From TrEMBL:
It catalyses: 2 cob(II)yrinate a,c diamide + reduced [electron-transfer flavoprotein] + 2 ATP = 2 adenosylcob(III)yrinate a,c-diamide + 2 triphosphate + oxidized [electron-transfer flavoprotein] + 3 H(+); 2 cob(II)alamin + reduced [electron-transfer flavoprotein] + 2 ATP = 2 adenosylcob(III)alamin + 2 triphosphate + oxidized [electron-transfer flavoprotein] + 3 H(+). Residues 3-166 form the Cobalamin adenosyltransferase-like domain. The keyword Lipid metabolism does not apply. NCBIfam families: PduO_Nterm. This is Corrinoid adenosyltransferase. It is an enzyme of class 2 (transferase). Belongs to the Cob(I)alamin adenosyltransferase family. Pathway: Cofactor biosynthesis; adenosylcobalamin biosynthesis; adenosylcobalamin from cob(II)yrinate a,c-diamide: step 2/7. Homotrimer.
């Protein structure tokens, strides 16, 4: 099997049920999700398999769910069955709560950083937010998009914030506080 098909040489790509320009907002959205998945893969390589066994399991699940999100966004067929389920959001919420309970309470805004893995997870957080904005743009353009994808991405960015803090905490590295911030969280 060849990796190249030449079908995209004129700036078009295939969706499930049609072809669109490679700069179509739908393609941008699932392309950003693919970028996000790559940053998660990078974070996985930066985490110790014993100390972060629970987080690594989370990240593997999330990577699979992101493939589901991308597939759901790429599906423009008249009859659709989406893969992403509400249960995925509920699991994220439980993990966010558990990870938040593990770390000291926030008092100030924090900057991305600390350990290499935490910094990569903060990149994942910001890429997630961009993907969410693109999905919202699709929804605002009255494209047929499963709303659960936007909701999942919203919760996922919160997860990445919580997990980045937990990674730093487990490694004994303090969060990097924004120095001009007063105590904003009480």
């Amino acid at each position: 099997m060849k990796l190249y098909t030449k079908t995209g040489d004129k700036g078009k790509t295939s969706l499930m049920g049609g072809r669109v320009s490679k700069d179509d907002l739908r393609v941008e959205a699932y392309g950003t999700i693919d970028e996000l998945n790559s940053f998660i893969g990078k974070a996985v390589t930066e985490l110790d398999s014993q100390k972060f066994k629970d987080i690594l399991a989370d990240l593997e699940t999330i990577q699979n769910e992101l493939f589901d999100c991308g597939g759901d966004l790429a599906n423009v067929m008249k009859e659709r069955k989406y893969k992403l389920q509400e249960a995925s959001i509920e699991v994220l919420e439980k993990r966010i709560d558990a990870l938040t309970d593990e770390v000291p309470p926030l008092k100030r805004f924090i900057l991305p950083g600390g350990t290499p893995a935490a910094a990569t997870l903060h990149i994942a957080r910001t890429v997630t937010r961009r993907a969410e904005r693109q999905v919202v743009s699709l929804m605002n353009a009255e494209e047929d998009v499963p709303a659960i994808v936007q909701k999942y991405l919203n919760r996922l960015s919160d997860y990445f914030f919580a997990v980045a803090r937990a990674v730093n905490f487990r490694l004994g590295v303090s969060d990097v506080e924004y120095i001009r911030s007063g105590d904003v969280f009480k």
